[in-house]
Amino acid sequence: MLIKTANEIEVLREGGRRLAAVLREVVVAVRPGVTELELDALAEKLIRAGGDTPAFKNYQPGGANIPFPATLCVSVNDAIVHGIPTHRALEEGDIVGLDIGLAHKGLYTDMARTIMVGEVSTQDRVLVEDTERALSLGISATCSGARMGDVGAAIEAVARPHHYGIVRELGGHGVGHAQHEKPYIPNYGVKGKGSKLMAGMVLALEPMFNIGTEEILLGEDGYTYRTADGSRSAHFEHTIVITESGPEVLTL
Ligand code: MG
């Protein structure tokens, strides 16, 4: 369903608030030495303590051989998105993408942040900051009456001066009744082109920028996407609702 009712938006608002609170606590636990699986266990515990359901756990997208085994996607350094958490301990200088979703009263919200572990290189810090800025500019462009291309153009404009690779195969999406709904939202585009955005649409915007190539590789696990050249990648995501007075971020 493209347009959500006022009641559905109210539930999504509460779900988004809960999701943001969970991720905030997980981010506090990020430090050198913590393992990816420890972060995942914390995320699952916090979501279930609120009476909600992790959205990604046991989700099986088309083409995948196994259901996703975790609550949190943990994508370190050259991993772009959908990393399966492992026993690996985070190290100083890593950048780690944490992507999380939950279902609250049957409705889904989705968000992600890339966290710098201790001191990181200047290049990595700028990549992370630019990707986060691209998300906020993309959100600002997501207004009733605007076009899908306006959103992609706003995101792409941040990447262009830095020659970041913009992942083409993955992007944002509608969300709510399911984890992934229409429409698909590319992280590039032409202003004024594409379908019209309307109040009541609930969307997950998620720019992914690579320091190097835009080319990506899917790992043998069937989930983890990495940059083809091993360069580092950052990813930020919020779930928003378009209101008559502008975009409202639900996952704050
Ligand atoms: Mg998403």
Describe the structure.
By secondary structure, the protein is an alpha+beta fold. It has a single domain, classed as Creatinase/methionine aminopeptidase superfamily (Creatine Amidinohydrolase), CATH 3.90.230.10. It is 27% helix and 26% strand. It is built from 4 helices and 15 strands. The protein has helices at 6-28, 36-49, 122-140, 148-159; strands spanning 53-54, 72-76, 79-81, 95-104, 107-116, 165-166, 172-174, 181-185, 202-205, 208-210, 216-218, 225-227, 233-235, 238-243, 246-249. It has a 5-stranded antiparallel β-sheet. Strands 1, 2, 4 and 5 form a 4-stranded antiparallel β-sheet that branches. It has a 3-stranded antiparallel β-sheet with strand order 3-12-11, with no helix packed on it. Strand 7 and strand 8 (181-185) form a beta hairpin. Helix 3 (122-140) packs antiparallel against helix 4 (148-159). The longest helix has 23 residues, at 6-28. It is globular and about 45 Å long. The two termini are 23 Å apart. The model has no long low-confidence stretch (mean pLDDT 97). The structure holds magnesium ion. Monomer. Residues 11-244 form the Peptidase M24 domain. GO terms for molecular function: initiator methionyl aminopeptidase activity; metal ion binding; metalloaminopeptidase activity. A divalent metal cation 2 binds at residues 110, 173, 206, 237. This is Methionine aminopeptidase.
Low-confidence spans: pLDDT under 50, at least 5 residues? none
In CATH, the homologous superfamily goes by the name Creatinase/methionine aminopeptidase superfamily
Distance between the termini: 23 Å
**C-alpha Rg (nearest Å):** 17 Å
Bound molecules: magnesium ion
The proportion of strand residues reads 25-35%
**Taking strands numbered 1, 2, ... along the chain, how are they ordered across the largest sheet?**
8-7-9-14-15
Q: Characterize the overall form.
A: globular
Per DSSP, the total helix count is 4
Decide which structural class fits the backbone. alpha+beta
Helix fraction, binned, reads 25-40%
Order of helices and strands: HHEEEEEHHEEEEEEEEEE
